[in-house]
Structures are given as C-alpha cells and as structure tokens.
Amino acid sequence: MKIFSILVVKDEADIIQYSIEKALAWSDYIFIVENMSTDGTWELISKLYYNHPKIKIWGRYGGEFTETIRQIAFNQFESMLQYGDWICRLDADEEYIDDPKIFLSQLPTKCDHVNNISFHYYFTEKDYENEINTGDTSWHEGKLKHYHAHHSEIRFIKYCNYTYWQQNRGWPHTLLHPAEIAIRLKHYQYRNISQIKRRLQIRIQESSNDYFAHEKADRRIMYKKLFNYDPTDFELKNLIVPSHFLLLDTGEYKMYKNTIPSPPLKSRIFMRIRSSIYNIIFKKLNIYTGKTIS
C-alpha cells in the first residue's frame, strides 16, 4: 500500500515547509500543483523538491482554483498506482493527528474512501495580543492552541480496478464504501495578522465559483452558525474568535463516527455496473489516446 498525496497550494510561505515535511513522514509521493504564488511559496517548494525525491512537481497552474485541479495531477501519476494504493487530498495548512499509514492499513478491505474530522485552530484574542507584544509572525508547532472541530469531508480514496475520475469532478464518482470512523487532522487556516489579511484579499478578489463562501460572503454568518455570537467589527476584520468559545489543545482528541451513510443498494449496484463499463472502455482500451493498455 502506497499513499499518493496531491497538494494544491497558493501563498502559504509561512507554513508550507512545515506541512510538507509532516506529510513526507507518511506519503510515498507528494504531487504539487502550485497556483501562481507571489509570497515565496514557489521558491520554497522548488528547494524542497531538490532535497526530497518523494516530491513531484506537476507545475504552476495559472487558472481559477477549483477542486478539480487535483484530477489534473492524478492523470499524470495514475500509471504509478496499483490496486489498494490510496490518494490523499493534502492541504498546505494542516497536519494529521492520526498517522494515515497506520489508519488506512487497519481499515476493512472493502473501504474505498475516508472522511476527516478537521480540528480548526482559530486566531484568538490571545494570539493577537501575543503577536502585537512580541512581533512574532513565524509559524511553529504548537503556536495556536484553541480549536473547534466542526467540519468533515473526503480526504482519502482507494485506487480500485473500477476507479474512474472525470475531469469535472472533485473526486471519482465510484466511491461506495466509506470508513466507519474519520481520520483526524489539525487545520491552521488563520495564523497571524498579515496572513489572515492576505488570505481574505485573495479569496475575495478571485471568484473561484462558490469556493470559500464562508470568507467571501458576510463572515458574521460563520460566527453565528458556529458560536451563536455576534462579533465586534475588530474581531470580524481580523477573524478573531474569542478563546472562551473554543477548546484548549491538551493533546487529547475525541474520535468521531463517520456519519456519511453508504448509498442505497440500488444505487450501489447501478454505480458498480457503470464503473465496470468505464473500466473496460476508458482504462483497458484507452479510447482517449487510441492506445491499448496491455
């Protein structure tokens, strides 16, 4: 079993080296699509590439961000995959609590995708005051201490003999058997004053369809939905979340059940038939290129 991580990144210079080095501990390969950063991210990735043979660079992508960018990288390395390997959607501002190598190896054979539980670490009034008093904007492990776990999405898919990933989809549509438990990760989306300001500027300026709606629209909705709280204008501007709404990181994390049910039996049968047809037409005969795969 190998793990192929796909990382799409833009303007994460303060944390990108930390995140990649964490992921190198369990990824067999990391395929990077760089989305035209202007803050030094590309230069850092280039240096890491020369020192780590596990890192593969797809290149620089200048178009609008969509979830389907990962499918482009998948097309490049699919020939390296074997049945039972896993594909990870890796983000540049996170690290895993659970070791994916161990977690995935212990799943039942039939599982073909895994959801995560994101422990979102927020920028609190304490973090703001510390930065103002010390001037420290660098990133290091344990810097943020307050979190709220409230989000889950697919993060790993197993490569199977029926896997077919359409270009206009964020994941293959042939996923049938979710794991019963979710894998845990820490998400550091808001890290310092200037990084938060830059992140919001990028997300607002770039349309990116409906992505990042929680940052582009009225951000008061996030506070109301998650914390039932009306933030001050100062908190809203700096995306500060009062620490008393959050849990303090003490190194203990609760494991959550994966609440996403399997599709109904009829849908699973239909999807399996459709997947088999895709497998015969697109992967065995390779209609797109006119070459037959032996």
Tell me about this structure:
The chain contains 10 helices and 10 strands. The protein is α/β, with parallel strands linked by helices. The chain has one domain: Alpha-Beta Complex (Spore Coat Polysaccharide Biosynthesis Protein SpsA, Chain A). Strands 1, 2, 3, 4, 5, 6, 7, 8, 9 and 10 form a 10-stranded mixed beta sheet that branches. It is globular, with a radius of gyration of 20 Å. The model is unreliable at 287-294 (pLDDT under 50).
- Count of DSSP E strands? 10
Low-confidence stretches: 287-294
Counting structural domains, the number is 1
Helix content: 25-40%
Name the CATH architecture. Answer: Alpha-Beta Complex
What is the CATH first-level class name? Alpha Beta
CATH topology descriptor? Spore Coat Polysaccharide Biosynthesis Protein SpsA, Chain A
Shape: globular
Structural category is alpha/beta
Our estimate of the beta-strand percent is: 15-25%
Terminus-to-terminus distance = 23 Å
Provide mean pLDDT, rounded. Answer: 85
Topology overview:
Layout: E1 3-9, H1 16-24, E2 29-34, H2 41-51, E3 55-60, H3 69-77, E4 86-90, E5 94-96, H4 100-105, E6 113-121, H5 125-134, E7 146-151, E8 154-158, E9 183-187, H6 193-205, H7 213-216, H8 220-227, H9 233-238, E10 247-248, H10 265-284
Parallel strand pairs: 1-2, 1-4, 2-3, 6-9
Antiparallel strand pairs: 4-8, 5-9, 6-7, 6-8, 7-10
